[in-house]
Write a structure and sequence with these properties.
The chain is α/β, with parallel strands linked by helices and 274 residues long. The chain is globular. The chain has 12 helices and 11 strands. It has a 6-stranded parallel beta sheet. Strands 1-2-5 form a 3-stranded parallel beta sheet. Helix 5 runs parallel beside helix 7. It binds zinc ion. Zinc ion binds next to loops.
Length: 274
């Protein structure tokens, strides 16, 4: 069964804040084993492939006040080393960039296949009207928007900004825009995220950063909503391996069609991989 990891990060410690680097070093077996060789995109791709990953979305983070500042340009360059494997996303910061929608257009023209927004790291509510032109740019480009939704250990996080109820107006006002909730409301809002998926046909959950063996506790209707769930790992910021998480999800007893959707088909559709 082919595997798309919808949520990975490049290991670029010089671009990350100290607390982020310390946290990742403290939990990541991949960083412990490969150290800064992971910064080499070819080596990182080989490691991910060895864990069964066929394609990996790579996320920048323009969040200097919290996690770090891995810019989209850097991720585009990283991904260009293995274009058949990596799928670059863009990151804009509504509080720091002069013209975020123009940046979205520029980054998608340069190859970005989605946009990551970090409300709790960048400090904005997703339904603020000043954010709407960013969504319009995503719709024009035909790309999904992935938003961090849930708790985080990164110092400076303001979790109130990612209350998923603030995504309901966005889903209503932008029908056809795929909205993916990274972390599925971790720690605060599992039921609210599931309700949004039920209520809006273009809203998805990315299960990154959740203990995979506990997914059915968080989402009892996981099988019924499996066409709107994508697999992600947060690699290398994860305590086990991608292969471990995949095996744990396989062991949940979901139907084969649900697993095919979660591990590949839903992401392929969102990313228009054809
Ligand atoms: Zn992440």
């Amino acid at each position: 069964m082919p595997l798309i990891d919808f949520h990975t990060h490049p290991w670029l410690p010089a671009h990350l804040n100290h607390a982020t680097v310390d946290f990742i070093r403290s939990i990541s077996p991949a960083v412990a084993e490969h150290h800064d060789r992971l910064s080499d995109p070819g080596h990182a791709a080989d490691v991910l492939r060895s864990q069964g990953v066929d394609r990996a979305v790579v996320l920048p983070e323009h969040c200097a006040e919290t996690s770090g500042d891995v810019r989209t340009e850097t991720v585009l360059e990283h991904c260009a080393a293995r274009p058949d494997f990596y799928i670059p996303f863009a990151s804009v910061n509504p509080n720091l960039d002069d013209d975020p929608p123009a940046l979205v257009r520029r980054y998608t023209a340069a190859g970005a296949r989605g946009l990551k927004l970090y409300p709790s790291y960048q400090f904005f509510y997703p339904d603020e009207r000043r954010i709407y032109p960013i969504y319009e740019a995503c719709m024009e480009a035909g790309i999904p928007v992935l938003l961090h939704v849930g708790s985080s250990v990164i110092p400076g996080t303001r979790v109130e900004f990612c209350d998923p109820v603030r995504l309901a107006p966005v889903a209503r006002d932008f029908p056809g825009l795929p909205i993916v909730m990274a972390h599925g409301g971790r720690g605060h809002w599992y039921a609210e995220c599931a309700a949004l998926v039920r209520d809006h046909e273009d809203v998805y959950i990315d299960v990154t950063g959740l203990v995979p063996s506990r997914l059915l506790e968080h989402f009892p209707d996981l099988a019924a909503m499996a066409d709107r769930v994508v697999f992600g790992s947060d690699w290398p910021a994860m305590p086990k391996s991608v292969a471990h998480n995949v095996a744990a999800i396989r062991a949940l007893g979901l139907p084969a069609a649900a697993l095919g959707g979660i591990f590949h088909d839903n992401a392929a559709r969102l990313l228009r991989l054809g």
